[in-house]
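The pair is set out directly below:
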Amino acid sequence: MADQKTGNTEKRKTKQSETIRKVLRYLGKYRIFLAFSVLLAAVSVALTLYIPKLTGYAVDYIVAEGLVNFPGVFRIMFQIGVCTLITALAQWLMNICNNKMTYQVVQDIRNEAFRKIEILPLKYIDGKPYGEVVSRVIADVDQFADGLLMGFTQFFTGVATIVGTFGFMLSINVGITVVVVLITPVSFLVANFIAKRTFAMFKVQSETRGEQTGLIEEMIGNQKVVQAFGRAEDVTERFDEINERLRTSSLRATFFSSITNPATRFVNSLVYTGVGIVGAFSVVNGFLTVGQLSSFLSYANQYTKPFNEISGVVTELQNAIACAQRIFDLIEEEPQTPEPENAVQLTDIEGNVSVEDVSFSYTPEQDLIKDFNLEVKPGQRIAIVGPTGCGKTTLINLLMRFYDVNGGSIKVEGNDIRKVTRKSLRAGYGMVLQDTWLKTGTILDNIRMGKPDATREEVIEAAKASHIHSFITRLPDGYDTWITEDGDGISQGQKQLLCITRVMLLRPPMLILDEATSSIDTRTEIKIQNAFAKLMEGRTTFIVAHRLSTIREADVILVMKNGKIIEQGNHESLMKQGGFYRHLYESQFSGGSI
């Protein structure tokens, strides 16, 4: 058990070191700002530390009542004023450099994380709560930025202050400096002891926060379903449980990290006391002047102060590194299979599709599609039917190469789609799904999604073909009406019509219709089916259907069960066979169960 614990500790340390190295690689691009920040920190600290020495001189000019060297005091006051102004300017410029450096790094990390999401395999996105992924890109990066900014702002200045103060103290009295140096390592030991324990706590806090964000996003997006099924109380209990874990982990992390400052302050007070006692005896014995003791006490205070700040920075950096580790885990996820260097650009697609001995499963232990074969000629309408979970939508995912086959191959125009650019492959399909998706923008922007250079006239023509033009013209700003991704004020059927209009505008060589008219009323559906009939002329079309009445005119109907085609033919031939298709068809119209 002890060996396992030691192994976990070593693994955590290694991961932490790797994360720090990755952060430093990002910082490398902005080393010029880092150099200026260090230089300005040194200037600021040097002048700040020079002021106590000037103050000591001023104290020594005040010998006794009536014996004050006023010219000397005024000269020193002027010097202190100049030093203060230059210090303020240096700190201002240093903060500009730190902000520039921090937010450039944050921008780079967010850009890389977002680009990685764009090329991640769909199984990663499907296997994670969306809110958890969002939390990494937004909340974790913000936490990382806060820690990094504090590190730049206080860490360099703190280290420079310690080194500079040490030098000034040595120039005044070596013996008292030794007293200070002997006590201060205790601060490092205390800070290091606490920091080791807070990293794991902050990591748990960050992970729990991501889990909570995922639940919130899931519930907001599905609030109607939650309320319709009376699950509000269960969801609230689940939220309370996660919230309680977040509270506990946050309290633990914050409590242990907050111990750092009081503990190091206590050590620093010991340092100040030691300097005061030894310094007083030195003044009495004539080894120091009163002014030098005044300067030394000021240096002792400034020498110990950075230890407090650095200990606080270390705690924040632990949190920042924990967040950075989650971000880098996302960035370093295995991307989708890269395209070969000589990938083919599909052009002049006629609609020849060949599926040869395809096998596929989402998980290794559960087969879904095995030994699947299909030959599609240009212009054919291929309907895919079967019970839930038989592999209908999976076949569509494979045709679009959202997932790669585990065995066999899928070819378009004789080209294995794994050797074809994804962009040209997907450009060959027009897809309308049962689940609609709109983006925030105008109606015009949403319809133009697949063809950004389309003219307004082309958009209107497509909208008329999909029977949504009259609805759009009744909106406040017509085609320029602004809608959100949720499509506020637009029914599910109207959303689906907008998605259909996109395809009508695009007029691709191949179509995929996955229950494309499921949310549309019967009267409009008949019109849409007629419009689709025109659109499908000469185009290879894959139709996933649950309502079998909609695919009676298909050239070929594939009946799937357990990932295999068990029957194949047109409607009439399949009905004559009296097999599984006929059973499905009659059960829909007789109200029987499948």
